[in-house]
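Researcher: Go.
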Amino acid sequence: MVLECLSVNNKRLFKGLGILALFSIGAILALYCYVLTMVSMPGHTWSGALPPLSAEQKVVEAHLRRNLTFLAQEIGERNFLRPGTLERSADYIAAQFQEIAADPSTVQRQHFQWGGGDYQNVILELKGATKPGEIVIVGAHYDTVSGCAGADDNGSGVVGVARQTSLLLLGIRKIAIL
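Model: Structure:
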């Protein structure tokens, strides 16, 4: 009778462990699939030489390079340890935005305090022609880590945002850009 009882309990235990094992395997597979879909990039990776730039692309490349060189080499490191270069960067970005916008009053500075310092966001707000209530926010940080000129982090983001905004202005702007 004791053996029968142990046998029944063992069957229940093994059945419970089997269900737990199946559930665990299912959870691990689901997590694997989730991670795989979150980190994989669509499309195909480019291989080989890039095609030559068109005349228009060369103009854009020169403009982006000039702006990025100014941020990374002329201004250089931009962070809370160097408030002067942060201010100079904000002035430069505001000037770029004022060139883009027909109305300079659409360029604003949002000041905030952090760690005893005064910092700012530079904002260009362009109202949409037919759908001003629908807003697209395009942004990039312009500070850098200590010891870094910030060409890639995040000078490229800043000049890319400025260029993208000017391209959006070339089309028919139906929604607001902020």
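Model: The chain has a mean pLDDT of 83.
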